[in-house]
Amino acid sequence: MKKLNFLVLGIFFALSLFAEVKMIPASFKDVAEKVKPSVVNISTVQVLKQNMDPFYDEFFNDDFFERFFGIPKGSFKRTSLGTGFIVDKNGYIMTNNHVVEKADEITVKLYNQKEYKAKIIGVDKETDVAVIKINENNLTPINLGDSDKIDVGDWVIAIGSPFGLEQSVTQGIISAKGRVIGAGPYDNFLQTDAAINPGNSGGPLVNLNGEVIGINTAITSRSGGYEGVGFAIPINMAKKIYEDIVTKGKVIRGWLGVGIQELTPELAKHFKVKEGVLISQVFKGSPAEKGGIKRGDVVLEFDGKKVSNYRELQNLVAQTPVNKIVKVKIVRNGQEKLLDVKTGERNIEKVYEPAEVESTKENDLGIVVGNITPDNNSQYGTTSESGVVVLNVLPGSPADDNGIMRGDIIHEVNGVEIKNVEDFNKIASRIKKNSEVVFLIERSNAMLYIAFKVK
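Predicted structure:
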């Protein structure tokens, strides 16, 4: 019986090992061949003007440079290389904005070496996505996948023209998701160790089914070349941008009209939550205000999707169709609420203008404040006629250590509205060492919560 049990365990182990081995591709040839007709090389030319030395003016006539070098006198050409992929058989191609930005001439070369001049249909600088088009109607479009379904550790293939070497294929895995690298307001990159180098920009990152799950966009490198860390725009984000550009001529994003921020441990304790995104400001007349969202609410879910940081919420809102009614789950005063909010269209948001005067008494916070009045509010860049402005922060004080800055406008302390210096003095006098405090401040046209313990 024991021998039988060992035999069964041995067979089970062997089958498990075989299953694991099968998951590792013996070759990526089939995937590479499948997507090859859809990947294109992009070369651009930008003509730049420059002031010529008088020496050249004396010895060369006006048409010399144009006849022999193909460029007007006083100009020079800057060239660059990139990659793209065909999305529609009628010639629509996706790539990076930085590949084609400011180009005076764009040339697209297909896998069969045929070349076409391309024109820009539209770009989105905030995500670095561009759509260009060539005059051809019998192309092979690539299949677009679902970037939400790709997981860390999954195999991926990057295809492009690194250093101008066309149709290069590299393989790797997804190293991380949701990376923020400071490229723009909607950073949400897929990170991969598949080799990406200059010239790969705009090319597809595909899964083992040959479906695009990302657009190769950036690398982190000290040398300027591949060092094992590359970033791709998730295709789900790029799909909506593509559709907006082609069908509407511009990128349309959803808008709530709120200021948001991350929850620190101190803020989470104050607002009685473990995670979520804190609403620090609600713009007047915005979809959020009309839907019942209030300052101090903590968003747990948006349109049925859980949010744990402000980037997730920002991207979800941006990708939501305008005028869609979504469910927003919030926590307010420790109680969960479900609100119906109709999204608006993101536009140039209202810019608030920033406020002086009688000083406060000494306090354990280490700050001196002054009143805001209708006469001086514009001086401090605010439209509010109440609150207090921070006139001075004592070096090494609790306020200084925790980021309160001169020029900040204090609207609330520990949930109590501050209308003037008298209000601030009353509550500040009750704040002693080892107590916790939460400020609601206005800074650079935005509202912000700051929480810390007074030591």
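Summary: The mean pLDDT is 83.
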